[in-house]
Design brief:
This protein is an alpha/beta fold. The protein is about 35% helix and about 20% strand.
Length: about 180
């Protein structure tokens, strides 16, 4: 069982955090919703209140296997403004697993972490992307320890790809079958 932290900031895209959390939990992973706020409460871009499992200040990342950055606005901007989130992005990109969806891959681009990688993002958020990094087609892309997705419509597939990264294709296929995901 892998340990996963999905980082939440006020204004995150609901489905981009909760769908991967659901998929990963169905796959048996230890998933925590971790907010950058001082208290566990966080509000989505669509004004849905969520009580997170932990705050950034209280969560222990030492044995965490995967960090996930959901997109949404101003959630992505709020994540990017947090130096601890930026440190975690650098650390997990260098030595563990990292996922980012929608606008959140722009954080990685701004931090200079996408050079020589394949990554996608929400159309219009690729301003800091290095040339030839972003595929033309929208979707979910895995490049080594990095999984990125283009936006909310890909949230379940993003979760399945994260599960495949952690546990293999068979585990992801079992969860997809149970959820009636059609290829």
């Amino acid at each position: 069982m892998a340990k996963v932290a999905i980082l939440l900031a006020d204004g995150f895209e609901t489905i981009e955090a909760l769908a991967p959390a659901d998929v990963l939990r169905r796959g048996g992973e230890d998933v925590s919703l971790v907010t950058i706020n001082d208290t566990p409460h966080v509000t989505t871009a669509h004004k849905i209140g969520i009580d997170a499992d932990a705050t950034l200040a209280t969560y222990d990342f030492s044995d965490c296997d995967l960090v996930v950055l959901p997109g949404g606005m101003p959630g992505t901007t709020n994540l990017r403004a947090n130096e601890r989130v930026c440190e975690l992005a650098r650390e997990f990109m260098a030595s563990r697993e990292l996922g980012a969806i929608c606008a959140a891959p722009s954080i990685l681009a701004e931090l200079g972490l996408l050079e020589g990688r394949v990554a996608t993002c929400y159309p219009g958020c690729e301003g800091a992307f290095p040339e030839d990094v972003r595929p033309e087609e929208l979707g979910v892309y895995t490049d080594g320890n990095l999984v990125t997705a283009s936006g909310p419509a890909f949230a379940v597939d993003f979760g399945l790809e994260l599960l495949a990264l952690l546990e293999g294709d068979e585990a992801a296929e079992r969860v997809a079958d149970g959820m009636l995901v059609i290829d």
